[in-house]
């Protein structure tokens, strides 16, 4: 008998689709695509492995809606039907064991490194701050007409997700990407109709959801990943998030995944021992929502995961790095053979290097580990910062030190 029944109960989404349990494998960028930006056999093997581990929903790494707006090397792009057969093969491989494979759709906006972005765009022509400044170009502000075109691109990509046979689609509105930039008063200083008040700043996201819903119909799951807080002065706040969540829930969104931070202040990439990075911020969030809620970030033990679901603070638990260490955590919890997972902390001999480079190299370490999984080999996440740095520089050169993204 399992010890945590709350994690194993099915969940029916507002659209009527039932998810077999309360585990969501959260998106992590794989970097496995070739020059054609299509999914391949490596993606198939990777997502079949995640599906076989037993998560109710598995979400792909961010898939771009515009081939001219990439976030990093190796991104997958779904803009036309050119590679639809490859997407169909991925959908089939990742839909085993009752798992539902969802595609996360994204646009990087200005959060595209200068060695990739020829013409980065954003709500306003404002550069990223701090250590990010030199790695990214100053963007130009999108016109209202270009914004409308991007809404159509998201909707068309969503229609292709459905046509390819995936279980659902997720809008990436977190972590400082384009939609997150629109939500932030720090990064969005344009006039109405897409800037100014929060209803105007969320207009881009609401229009994307509405256009997607029209494109895929009422019974196909649409979720969103958004920040619970940007954790930046003048940025998107916890109270802003509550209002956006209410609006999305009223509009009929099927699932809201909460994370936090951006690549100027990467709370989601920390090496903290705290379990559940954002648990102190979700109290009472579900009270005025009809949409189910996923909380992602920092979960390690079955006990804490189960307590979140049993107390109705959230409806699903989002896991990313733990499922690279052990993709079978959901299945093992069902079997009663899992207690907690240990995630290695990236270390250098000099503490200052551990603090500065640890988060960057941490995501690279998991990307390397997913590459091993994609080749059918056991994943190994190294904690040796110096070795990881050499591996990263050997594979990508100095441009590799630009922050990796989820």
Q: State the helix count.
A: 12
In helices, the fraction of residues equals 25-40%
What share of residues are in beta strands? 5-15%
Rounded Rg:
20 Å
Uncertain ranges: 398-406
Protein traits:
406 residues, alpha/beta, two-stranded antiparallel sheet
Offer a quick outline of the entry.
This protein is of the alpha/beta class. The protein is 34% helix and 12% strand. An eight-stranded parallel barrel has the order 3-4-7-10-11-12-13-14, surrounded by five helices. Strands 1-2 form a two-stranded antiparallel sheet. Strands 8-9 form a two-stranded parallel sheet.
What would your notes on this structure say?
By secondary structure, the chain is α/β, with parallel strands linked by helices. Helix content is 34%, strand content 12%. The protein has twelve helices and 14 strands. The chain has helices at 41-52, 84-93, 144-164, 178-183, 198-201, 203-216, 238-251, 302-310, 321-325, 329-335, 351-374, 385-396; strands at 11-12, 18-19, 23-25, 57-59, 63-64, 76-77, 100-106, 121-122, 140-141, 168-173, 222-227, 255-259, 293-296, 316-319. Helix 1 links the parallel strand 3 and strand 4 (57-59).
């Amino acid at each position: 008998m399992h010890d945590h029944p709350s994690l194993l109960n099915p969940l029916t989404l507002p659209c009527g689709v039932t998810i077999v349990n309360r585990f969501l494998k959260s998106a992590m960028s794989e970097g496995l695509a070739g020059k054609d930006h299509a999914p391949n056999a490596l993606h198939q093997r990777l997502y079949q492995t995640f599906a076989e581990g037993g998560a109710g929903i598995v979400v792909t790494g961010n898939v771009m809606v515009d081939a001219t707006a990439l976030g990093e090397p190796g991104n997958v792009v779904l803009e036309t039907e050119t590679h639809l057969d490859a997407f169909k093969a991925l959908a089939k491989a990742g839909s085993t064991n009752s798992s539902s494979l969802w595609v996360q759709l994204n646009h990087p906006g200005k959060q595209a490194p200068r060695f990739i972005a020829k013409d980065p765009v954003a709500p306003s022509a404002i550069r990223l701050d701090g250590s990010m400044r030199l790695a990214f170009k100053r963007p130009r502000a999108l016109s209202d007409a270009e914004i409308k075109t991007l809404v159509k691109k998201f909707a068309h990509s969503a229609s292709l997700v459905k046509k390819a046979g995936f279980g659902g689609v997720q809008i990436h509105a977190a972590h400082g990407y384009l939609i997150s930039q629109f939500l932030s008063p720090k990064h969005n200083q344009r006039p109405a109709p897409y800037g100014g008040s929060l209803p105007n700043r969320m207009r881009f996201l609401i229009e994307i959801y509405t256009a997607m819903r029209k494109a895929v119909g009422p019974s196909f799951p649409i979720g969103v990943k958004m920040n619970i807080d940007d954790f930046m002065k003048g940025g998107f706040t916890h109270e802003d998030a509550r209002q956006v969540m209410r609006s999305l829930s009223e509009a009929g969104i099927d699932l809201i995944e909460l994370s936090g931070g951006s690549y100027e202040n990467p709370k989601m990439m920390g090496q903290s021992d705290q379990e559940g990075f954002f648990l102190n911020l979700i109290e009472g969030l579900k009270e005025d929502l009809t949409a189910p809620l996923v909380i992602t970030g920092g979960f390690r033990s079955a006990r804490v995961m189960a307590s979140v679901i049993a107390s109705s603070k959230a409806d699903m638990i989002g896991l990313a790095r733990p499922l690279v260490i052990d993709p079978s955590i959901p299945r093992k919890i069902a079997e009663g053979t899992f207690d907690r997972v240990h995630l290695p902390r990236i270390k250098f001999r000099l503490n200052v290097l551990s603090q500065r480079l640890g988060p960057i190299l941490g995501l690279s370490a998991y990307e390397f580990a997913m590459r091993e999984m994609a080749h059918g080999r056991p994943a190994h996440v190294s904690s040796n910062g110096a070795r990881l740095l050499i591996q990263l520089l050997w594979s990508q050169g100095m441009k590799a030190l630009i922050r990796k993204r989820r």
